[in-house]
Design brief:
UDP N-Acetylglucosamine Acyltransferase, domain 1, seven-stranded mixed beta sheet, 3 helices, about 20% helix, binds coenzyme A
Protein backbone atom coordinates (compact mmCIF):
# COMPACT_ATOMS: atom_id res chain seq x y z
CA UNK A 1 0.00 0.00 0.00
CA UNK A 2 2.84 2.39 0.88
CA UNK A 3 4.55 1.76 -2.46
CA UNK A 4 1.25 2.44 -4.23
CA UNK A 5 0.77 5.71 -2.33
CA UNK A 6 4.38 6.77 -3.04
CA UNK A 7 3.80 6.16 -6.76
CA UNK A 8 0.55 8.12 -6.74
CA UNK A 9 2.06 11.09 -4.89
CA UNK A 10 5.24 11.30 -7.01
CA UNK A 11 5.59 14.71 -8.66
CA UNK A 12 3.02 16.51 -6.47
CA UNK A 13 4.15 19.75 -4.82
CA UNK A 14 2.93 20.20 -1.21
CA UNK A 15 0.39 22.80 -2.43
CA UNK A 16 -0.94 20.47 -5.13
CA UNK A 17 -1.14 17.66 -2.62
CA UNK A 18 -3.10 19.84 -0.22
CA UNK A 19 -5.46 20.79 -3.08
CA UNK A 20 -6.19 17.12 -3.88
CA UNK A 21 -7.29 16.68 -0.26
CA UNK A 22 -9.24 19.92 0.19
CA UNK A 23 -11.22 19.86 -3.08
CA UNK A 24 -13.20 16.66 -2.34
CA UNK A 25 -13.90 17.88 1.20
CA UNK A 26 -15.32 21.17 -0.06
CA UNK A 27 -17.55 19.42 -2.61
CA UNK A 28 -18.62 16.86 0.01
CA UNK A 29 -19.94 19.72 2.17
CA UNK A 30 -22.02 21.32 -0.62
CA UNK A 31 -22.92 18.32 -2.82
CA UNK A 32 -26.02 17.09 -1.04
CA UNK A 33 -27.71 20.43 -0.40
CA UNK A 34 -31.10 20.65 -2.16
CA UNK A 35 -32.96 23.61 -3.74
CA UNK A 36 -31.63 27.12 -4.39
CA UNK A 37 -29.15 27.42 -1.47
CA UNK A 38 -27.50 24.25 -2.81
CA UNK A 39 -27.27 25.62 -6.38
CA UNK A 40 -25.88 28.91 -5.09
CA UNK A 41 -23.25 27.32 -2.85
CA UNK A 42 -22.09 24.91 -5.56
CA UNK A 43 -21.86 27.83 -8.00
CA UNK A 44 -19.74 29.82 -5.52
CA UNK A 45 -17.41 26.86 -4.93
CA UNK A 46 -16.99 26.46 -8.70
CA UNK A 47 -16.33 30.20 -9.07
CA UNK A 48 -13.55 29.77 -6.53
CA UNK A 49 -12.04 26.55 -7.88
CA UNK A 50 -12.56 26.51 -11.67
CA UNK A 51 -9.84 27.81 -13.98
CA UNK A 52 -12.58 30.03 -15.44
CA UNK A 53 -16.32 30.40 -14.82
CA UNK A 54 -17.97 33.09 -16.94
CA UNK A 55 -21.56 32.91 -15.67
CA UNK A 56 -23.94 30.84 -13.57
CA UNK A 57 -23.52 27.07 -13.42
CA UNK A 58 -26.50 24.98 -12.25
CA UNK A 59 -25.24 21.86 -10.54
CA UNK A 60 -27.81 19.41 -9.17
CA UNK A 61 -27.03 17.50 -5.96
CA UNK A 62 -24.68 14.49 -6.12
CA UNK A 63 -22.56 15.60 -9.08
CA UNK A 64 -18.87 14.72 -8.69
CA UNK A 65 -16.20 17.11 -10.00
CA UNK A 66 -12.56 16.05 -9.80
CA UNK A 67 -9.60 18.33 -10.68
CA UNK A 68 -12.05 21.24 -10.78
CA UNK A 69 -9.16 23.70 -11.15
CA UNK A 70 -8.74 22.40 -14.72
CA UNK A 71 -12.34 23.15 -15.74
CA UNK A 72 -13.00 26.19 -17.89
CA UNK A 73 -16.69 27.00 -18.18
CA UNK A 74 -18.92 29.51 -20.00
CA UNK A 75 -22.27 30.77 -18.74
CA UNK A 76 -25.63 29.00 -18.34
CA UNK A 77 -24.31 25.50 -17.94
CA UNK A 78 -26.36 22.80 -16.17
CA UNK A 79 -25.20 19.43 -14.84
CA UNK A 80 -27.75 16.87 -13.70
CA UNK A 81 -27.55 14.53 -10.76
CA UNK A 82 -25.14 11.57 -10.64
CA UNK A 83 -22.77 12.92 -13.30
CA UNK A 84 -18.99 12.55 -12.93
CA UNK A 85 -16.51 14.99 -14.48
CA UNK A 86 -12.78 14.39 -14.10
CA UNK A 87 -10.74 17.25 -15.54
CA UNK A 88 -7.32 15.59 -15.24
CA UNK A 89 -6.54 16.60 -18.85
CA UNK A 90 -8.77 19.70 -18.77
CA UNK A 91 -12.46 20.11 -19.58
CA UNK A 92 -13.66 23.13 -21.53
CA UNK A 93 -17.40 23.86 -21.45
CA UNK A 94 -18.93 26.52 -23.71
CA UNK A 95 -22.15 28.45 -22.97
CA UNK A 96 -25.62 26.85 -22.70
CA UNK A 97 -24.26 23.33 -22.23
CA UNK A 98 -26.77 20.80 -20.81
CA UNK A 99 -25.38 17.66 -19.19
CA UNK A 100 -27.97 15.00 -18.29
CA UNK A 101 -27.97 12.68 -15.32
CA UNK A 102 -25.30 9.99 -14.77
CA UNK A 103 -23.03 11.28 -17.54
CA UNK A 104 -19.30 10.46 -17.36
CA UNK A 105 -16.79 12.97 -18.77
CA UNK A 106 -13.29 11.83 -17.90
CA UNK A 107 -10.29 13.47 -19.56
CA UNK A 108 -7.62 10.90 -18.72
CA UNK A 109 -6.69 7.50 -20.07
CA UNK A 110 -4.33 4.75 -18.83
CA UNK A 111 -1.95 3.50 -21.56
CA UNK A 112 -2.87 -0.13 -22.34
CA UNK A 113 -0.24 -1.41 -24.80
CA UNK A 114 2.19 -4.08 -23.63
CA UNK A 115 1.82 -6.69 -20.93
CA UNK A 116 3.62 -4.85 -18.15
CA UNK A 117 3.58 -2.98 -15.89
CA UNK A 118 -0.03 -3.50 -14.80
CA UNK A 119 -2.46 -0.85 -16.09
CA UNK A 120 -3.18 -0.12 -12.43
CA UNK A 121 0.44 1.04 -12.07
CA UNK A 122 0.50 3.28 -15.16
CA UNK A 123 -0.27 6.96 -14.60
CA UNK A 124 -3.25 8.29 -16.57
CA UNK A 125 -2.41 10.34 -19.66
CA UNK A 126 -4.26 13.68 -19.69
CA UNK A 127 -6.37 14.35 -22.82
CA UNK A 128 -8.49 17.49 -22.93
CA UNK A 129 -12.24 17.29 -23.62
CA UNK A 130 -13.93 20.27 -25.27
CA UNK A 131 -17.71 20.66 -25.18
CA UNK A 132 -18.73 23.60 -27.34
CA UNK A 133 -21.62 26.00 -26.87
CA UNK A 134 -25.17 24.62 -27.06
CA UNK A 135 -24.30 20.93 -26.63
CA UNK A 136 -26.88 18.64 -24.96
CA UNK A 137 -25.63 15.35 -23.51
CA UNK A 138 -28.37 12.77 -22.75
CA UNK A 139 -28.57 10.67 -19.62
CA UNK A 140 -25.94 8.01 -19.03
CA UNK A 141 -23.63 9.03 -21.89
CA UNK A 142 -19.87 8.54 -21.64
CA UNK A 143 -17.57 11.13 -23.25
CA UNK A 144 -14.12 9.69 -23.90
CA UNK A 145 -10.80 11.51 -23.33
CA UNK A 146 -9.64 13.81 -26.14
CA UNK A 147 -13.06 14.24 -27.73
CA UNK A 148 -14.51 17.58 -28.94
CA UNK A 149 -18.29 17.89 -29.07
CA UNK A 150 -19.01 20.39 -31.83
CA UNK A 151 -21.22 23.46 -31.40
CA UNK A 152 -24.86 22.52 -30.77
CA UNK A 153 -24.35 18.78 -31.10
CA UNK A 154 -26.65 16.36 -29.28
CA UNK A 155 -25.53 13.12 -27.64
CA UNK A 156 -28.26 10.51 -27.15
CA UNK A 157 -28.93 8.74 -23.88
CA UNK A 158 -26.36 6.02 -23.06
CA UNK A 159 -24.10 6.85 -26.03
CA UNK A 160 -20.36 6.24 -25.76
CA UNK A 161 -18.65 9.05 -27.65
CA UNK A 162 -15.23 7.96 -28.90
CA UNK A 163 -14.79 10.53 -31.71
CA UNK A 164 -15.40 14.27 -32.04
CA UNK A 165 -18.86 15.28 -33.25
CA UNK A 166 -19.88 17.65 -36.05
CA UNK A 167 -21.58 20.95 -35.24
CA UNK A 168 -25.39 20.59 -34.89
CA UNK A 169 -25.28 16.81 -35.29
CA UNK A 170 -27.36 14.25 -33.37
CA UNK A 171 -25.26 11.25 -32.27
CA UNK A 172 -26.42 7.99 -30.70
CA UNK A 173 -25.20 4.51 -29.83
CA UNK A 174 -22.11 2.61 -28.76
CA UNK A 175 -19.80 3.76 -30.24
CA UNK A 176 -21.73 6.96 -31.05
CA UNK A 177 -22.51 7.56 -34.71
CA UNK A 178 -24.18 10.52 -36.39
CA UNK A 179 -27.95 9.90 -36.66
CA UNK A 180 -28.86 13.15 -38.38
CA UNK A 181 -28.30 16.90 -38.49
CA UNK A 182 -30.20 19.49 -36.48
CA UNK A 183 -30.10 22.07 -39.27
CA UNK A 184 -32.63 22.75 -42.02
CA UNK A 185 -35.70 23.03 -39.77
CA UNK A 186 -38.15 25.93 -39.80
CA UNK A 187 -37.37 27.00 -36.21
CA UNK A 188 -33.62 27.41 -36.89
CA UNK A 189 -33.88 31.13 -36.18
CA UNK A 190 -35.18 30.56 -32.65
CA UNK A 191 -38.00 28.18 -31.78
CA UNK A 192 -40.43 29.07 -29.01
CA UNK A 193 -39.60 27.72 -25.57
CA UNK A 194 -43.34 27.41 -24.75
C1 LIG B 1 -30.79 11.50 -29.29
C2 LIG B 1 -32.26 11.92 -29.23
C3 LIG B 1 -32.34 13.41 -28.92
C4 LIG B 1 -32.78 11.62 -30.64
O1 LIG B 1 -34.05 12.11 -30.80
P1 LIG B 1 -34.74 12.03 -32.26
O2 LIG B 1 -33.89 12.69 -33.29
O3 LIG B 1 -36.10 12.57 -32.06
O4 LIG B 1 -34.70 10.49 -32.60
P2 LIG B 1 -35.93 9.47 -32.84
O5 LIG B 1 -36.65 9.25 -31.56
O6 LIG B 1 -36.71 9.95 -34.04
O7 LIG B 1 -35.13 8.14 -33.21
C5 LIG B 1 -34.44 7.98 -34.44
C6 LIG B 1 -33.69 6.66 -34.41
O8 LIG B 1 -32.63 6.75 -33.47
C7 LIG B 1 -32.75 5.74 -32.45
N1 LIG B 1 -32.37 6.38 -31.18
C8 LIG B 1 -32.89 7.47 -30.61
N2 LIG B 1 -32.26 7.75 -29.45
C9 LIG B 1 -31.33 6.80 -29.29
C10 LIG B 1 -30.37 6.55 -28.29
N3 LIG B 1 -30.25 7.36 -27.24
N4 LIG B 1 -29.56 5.49 -28.45
C11 LIG B 1 -29.66 4.68 -29.52
N5 LIG B 1 -30.57 4.85 -30.52
C12 LIG B 1 -31.39 5.92 -30.40
C13 LIG B 1 -34.24 5.38 -32.47
O9 LIG B 1 -34.45 4.09 -31.97
C14 LIG B 1 -34.55 5.49 -33.93
O10 LIG B 1 -34.05 4.35 -34.58
P3 LIG B 1 -34.88 3.68 -35.82
O11 LIG B 1 -34.93 4.74 -36.88
O12 LIG B 1 -34.06 2.49 -36.18
O13 LIG B 1 -36.24 3.36 -35.26
C15 LIG B 1 -33.07 11.19 -28.12
O14 LIG B 1 -33.47 9.91 -28.53
C16 LIG B 1 -32.28 11.06 -26.80
O15 LIG B 1 -31.52 10.10 -26.57
N6 LIG B 1 -32.49 12.05 -25.91
C17 LIG B 1 -31.89 12.10 -24.62
C18 LIG B 1 -32.97 12.07 -23.54
C19 LIG B 1 -32.40 12.20 -22.17
O16 LIG B 1 -31.37 11.63 -21.87
N7 LIG B 1 -33.07 12.99 -21.33
C20 LIG B 1 -32.64 13.24 -19.98
C21 LIG B 1 -31.42 14.07 -19.90
S1 LIG B 1 -31.68 15.80 -19.73
Amino acid sequence: MLAFLRGKLKGYSPAALLYTQVEPLVFWVVNGLPSFPGFLLRHLVCKLLFRRLAGFIWIQPRVELVNAHRISCGSNVAINTGSYLNALGGIVLGDYVLIGSNVTISSGQHPIDGEGPEIFQRPAVPLEIVIETGVWIGAGAVIMPGVRLGRGSVIGANAVVTRSTEPFSVNVGVPARKLRSRTGFTNDTGGSAH
